[in-house]
Structure formats: structure tokens, C-alpha cells
């Protein structure tokens, strides 16, 4: 946990956005894999962590504006818990560390909320993303389980997003730490990957390194020789000479803050000429995008410029043609780049995505395009502010299924040289990604330098063989 004053101040800031009612925060519970006592790795709800800091399951917290009180509803360990889990820190003491002095039994919450509703008091809650929390809210507030999300509080969502988006000093330190550890792991992978290894062997080492750091993985490892598949979790392939390895992985610190880095490197000691040429196109787009990061700049414009740079590079390679800006406007670049250039980061690797991408990445005046291929995957479009933490992650992906579909339909033939692209059918994909903090002017990369040019990566691969 941070110092108690951090959580007290966070809640105080939130309280100022509301004049009356109850702010209700559900923590997460244990989620069984195949039976109740064999759960998945526990991960606390990020907004609960942000305001209350307690990383225990089955807790619910309220900020009661009318009664001017804050309390946590949860149970101390039972004798069975003590037998199976051993003596842990008292929940009452954990609450005190976040400035909460009132702890109530969970069975008191329903009556507490019922009385509030009878008095006509508004109960604000965030949209639930877990089915069990949706059921809990349905029971506590006497709502149809299928309509719970409809009754969630837009005002609370907007207030939480505004507050969590701008990272405080203590958060930046955690995010720097997550990025630095993630960079160390990325370097370890480049140093140890060898022809003949299974992808899963390397993924296992990444998992082990994350645990050794005192934290865990921020998301499942994407370690693949088929980098054209954006989120490829299959790890049964063998590394072979001449192929590329795309490694997208990040550590979550013990405090819950995420890192998210990607590097692509050759299985061999060196990139082939084609691999190097495509890599440099991606690197150029990365440098343009990261160089644009600054307060007031719309991330949508950064994304479009990054796409334009990809098109210009692909034109130089003979794979695309025509005006680059027109190609991007029409969506021709999506044959090679189907996703967004980046997203916000913090306590979630896709920060606050559970609260809705329109609220997190866009504004009332800038609506997300939810239908156009490519743009519908851009999680962030609005103007940046100092204190935002963003990823920059352009890529080029030669997806065979997409190539066949576009070519058969004759899509974007005025922009794409299909005969030339066909030679890259089995190329795979390349992504380069780092995490950045937006400053009052410009931005800085979080963590530490990690080999990024083909020369740097080839030197590492040469020394590792």
C-alpha cells in the first residue's frame, strides 16, 4: 500500500464531485477455475485498489456523502481460514492503513443500502465487468440482473476516469518500475531464445521472472513466431532459423501497476534484408508517434500520422502506392496494421477499459468510431494531458487470411500492390512498443533503454548464440 494519506486524499477529491448520495465500490472475489477451492489468480478491482488499497477478496466499500462516513464491509478471518491459510494481518488494520476506521459485517450492507433507497438517496456504482458482481449488485439493490449495467452511474464513471487518468508521483514511480522490470525481461528473452526452443519454454521464463520481481504478469504473455496474429496466446511452435519472434509482455508490480513492452527479434543472429526493411518502417512510425506526444495533441492524430508513416515506408518497399494520406483515410493501411497505435496505462494494462472506451479515450465531442476496421480498435483518441501514461506500439502484420480476403474482393487495389505483397505471405509480423509519460512539454519513456534498432538487437543476438 501507499501511505494512508494517498487514499484519504484520493477519496476526498472524488467526494468533491458529488453533493449527496452513496458511492458504492465492489471489490472482486475469488473466481473458481473448476471448483470453489481452486481459484484463478486473484486480482482486485482496480478502482477499488485506487481508492481503498486493500488487495483482499470479498470486500465492498462505501463513501456515504450524506452521513459523512467511509466504511468497508468485509469479514475477518474465521477459524477455518486460520487453519487453512494461517494468521494474516487483520482486516481492521488493513483498513486503518488506508484511512478507513469503520469496518462492518457484509451481512449489514443490504439493509444499509435498502434504508438509503427508501430515503430516496442516490446510490452510484461503476458498471460491473464480472458476472458475480453483477449478481451481487442485483441482490443488494433489488435490480433485474440483466439491467444492472443500465443503472450504473455515468457521473461516477466520468469522475473516476478524470482522476485516475492523471498519474500522481507515487504512481509514476510504480509505472517506471514496471517498465524497467519489463525491459529487463525483454532483454533476457533476446539473450536466451535459441533455435529449437518451444515458444512455451520462453513464456515460462517470462512468467518466472515476473514472479521473481515480486509482482506478476500484467497480462498473458504473447510470445510467438506468428506475430501477424495480434494477440496470439498459442505457444506450441518451435523457433526456427529465418523466423521472427514477437514478444509482447509486461510486469504488474505488487502495487498493481502495469508495464507493456514489445520487441521483435530474429531467431537467427541477424535480420534478413526483408525483415530489416520492414522493421525500420515500423521503427520510423514509432519515432514519429512518440515524438508527437505532448499535452493538447489528440491521440487520434498521432495514430493517423503513425499510419501514414507506415504507408510511406511500405510505398518505398513497393508494397503500397498512391497518396499516403488518402490510403489511410480509405483504410487501405489496415491490410498491414489493423489496430490502434496505443492506449492508456496505469492500474490496468488497458487502463480503465472496464469503464468504457468512450469515457476513457474519447469525449462528448469526439465519439469513437466503433464500426470502421482499424479505427474501431483505437482505444485512445482524445487530446493528451500532462500525467497521462500511454503506450506507442505501431506494427506491420502480414495476415494471410486478411490478404486473401482483401485481394479476392479487390479492396484498395489503387493503393496495394498485391503481387508484391504476396511474397511476404509467410513473413509474420513486427511490433515495437514502449510506455511513455506525458509531461508539461513533450513526453519521456518510462523504465530504461531497451535495444530497439536492428543493429542493437543483432549485437545481442550475436552474443547469445
Task: Spell out the key features of this protein.
465 residues, alpha+beta, Creatine Amidinohydrolase, Chain A, domain 1, Creatine Amidinohydrolase, 2 domains, five-stranded mixed sheet, three-stranded antiparallel sheet, 16 helices, 39% helix, globular
Model description:
The longest helix is centred in the middle third of the chain and has 24 residues, at about 170-190. The two termini are about 45 Å apart. This protein is globular. It folds into two domains: about 5-165, 3-Layer(aba) Sandwich (Creatine Amidinohydrolase, Chain A, domain 1); about 170-465, Creatine Amidinohydrolase, CATH 3.90.230.10. α8 (about 170-190) packs antiparallel against α9 and α11 crosses α12 (about 325-330). The strands form five sheets. A five-stranded mixed beta sheet has the order 4-3-2-1-5, sandwiched between helices. The chain has a three-stranded antiparallel beta sheet with strand order 7-8-10. It is built from 16 helices and 15 strands. With about 475 residues, it is of the alpha+beta class. Helix content is about 40%, strand content about 10%.
Q: Roughly how much helix do the residues carry, as a percent range?
A: 25-40%
β-sheet strand percentage:
5-15%
Radius of gyration: 24 Å
Q: Describe the global form.
A: globular
Number of domains: 2
By DSSP (H or I, 4+ residues per run), the number of helices equals: 16
| Biggest sheet: strand arrangement | 4-3-2-1-5
Low-confidence stretches: none
Q: In angstroms, what separates the terminal alpha carbons?
A: 43 Å
CATH topology call of the largest domain: Creatine Amidinohydrolase
Count of β-strands: 15
Query: Any idea of the CATH class of the largest domain?
Result: Alpha Beta
The CATH architecture assignment of the largest domain turns out to be Alpha-Beta Complex
**Mean of all residue-level pLDDT scores:** 97
Q: Output the CATH homologous superfamily of the largest domain.
A: Creatinase/methionine aminopeptidase superfamily
Structural class determined from secondary elements = alpha+beta
Biggest beta-sheet profile? 5 strands, mixed
**Oligomer, anyone?**
single chain
Amino acid at each position: 500500500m501507499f501511505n494512508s494519506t494517498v487514499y484519504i486524499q484520493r477519496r476526498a477529491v472524488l467526494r468533491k464531485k458529488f453533493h449527496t448520495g452513496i458511492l458504492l465500490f465492489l471489490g472482486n472475489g475469488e473466481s473458481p477455475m473448476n471448483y470453489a477451492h481452486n481459484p484463478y489468480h486473484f486480482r482486485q478491482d482496480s478502482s477499488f485498489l485506487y481508492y481503498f488499497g486493500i488487495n483482499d477478496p470479498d470486500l465492498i466499500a462505501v463513501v456515504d456523502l450524506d452521513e459523512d462516513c467511509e466504511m468497508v464491509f468485509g469479514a475477518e478471518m474465521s477459524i477455518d481460514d486460520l487453519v487453512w491459510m494461517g494468521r494474516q494481518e487483520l482486516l481492521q488494520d488493513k483498513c486503518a492503513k488506508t484511512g478507513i476506521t469503520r469496518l462492518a459485517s457484509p451481512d449489514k450492507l443490504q439493509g444499509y443500502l435498502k434504508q438509503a433507497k427508501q430515503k430516496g438517496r442516490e446510490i452510484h456504482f461503476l458498471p460491473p465487468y464480472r458476472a458475480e458482481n453483477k449478481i451481487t449488485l442485483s441482490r443488494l439493490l433489488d435490480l433485474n440482473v440483466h439491467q444492472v449495467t443500465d443503472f450504473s452511474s455515468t457521473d461516477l464513471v466520468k469522475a473516476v476516469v478524470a482522476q485516475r487518468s492523471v498519474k500522481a508521483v507515487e504512481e509514476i514511480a510504480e509505472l517506471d518500475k514496471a517498465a524497467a522490470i519489463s525491459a529487463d525481461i525483454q532483454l533476457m528473452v533476446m539473450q536466451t531464445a535459441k533455435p529449437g526452443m518451444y515458444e512455451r519454454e520462453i513464456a515460462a521464463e517470462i512468467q518466472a521472472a515476473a514472479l521473481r520481481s515480486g509482482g506478476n504478469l500484467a497480462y498473458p504473455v504473447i510470445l510467438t513466431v506468428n506475430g501477424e496474429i495480434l494477440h496470439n496466446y498459442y505457444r506450441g511452435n518451435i523457433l526456427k532459423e529465418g523466423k521472427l519472434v514477437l514478444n509482447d509482455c509486461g510486469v504488474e508490480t505488487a502495487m498493481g501497476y502495469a508495464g507493456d513492452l514489445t520487441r521483435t527479434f530474429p531467431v537467427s543472429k541477424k535480420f534478413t534484408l526483408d525483415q530489416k526493411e520492414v522493421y525500420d518502417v515500423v521503427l520510423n512510425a514509432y519515432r514519429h508517434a512518440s515524438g508527437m506526444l505532448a499535452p493538447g495533441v489528440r491521440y487520434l492524430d498521432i495514430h493517423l500520422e503513425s499510419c501514414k508513416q507506415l504507408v510511406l515506408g511500405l510505398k518505398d518497399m513497393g508494397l503500397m502506392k498512391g497518396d499516403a494520406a488518402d490510403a489511410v483515410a480509405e483504410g487501405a493501411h489496415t491490410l498491414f496494421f489493423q489496430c490502434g497505435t496505443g492506449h492508456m496505462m496505469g492500474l490496468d494494462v488497458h487502463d480503465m477499459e472496464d469503464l468504457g472506451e468512450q469515457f476513457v479515450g474519447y469525449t462528448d465531442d469526439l465519439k469513437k468510431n466503433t464500426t470502421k476496421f482499424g479505427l474501431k480498435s483505437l482505444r485512445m483518441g482524445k487530446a493528451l494531458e500532462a500525467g497521462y501514461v500511454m503506450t506507442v506500439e505501431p506494427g506491420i502484420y502480414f495476415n494471410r487470411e486478411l490478404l486473401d480476403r482483401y485481394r479476392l474482393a479487390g479492396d484498395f487495389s489503387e493503393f496495394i500492390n498485391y503481387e508484391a505483397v504476396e511474397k511476404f505471405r509467410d513473413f509474420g509480423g513486427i511490433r515495437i512498443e514502449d510506455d511513455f509519460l506525458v509531461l508539461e512539454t513533450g513526453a519521456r519513456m518510462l523504465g530504461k533503454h531497451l535495444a530497439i534498432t536492428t543493429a542493437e538487437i543483432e549485437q545481442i543476438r550475436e552474443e547469445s548464440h
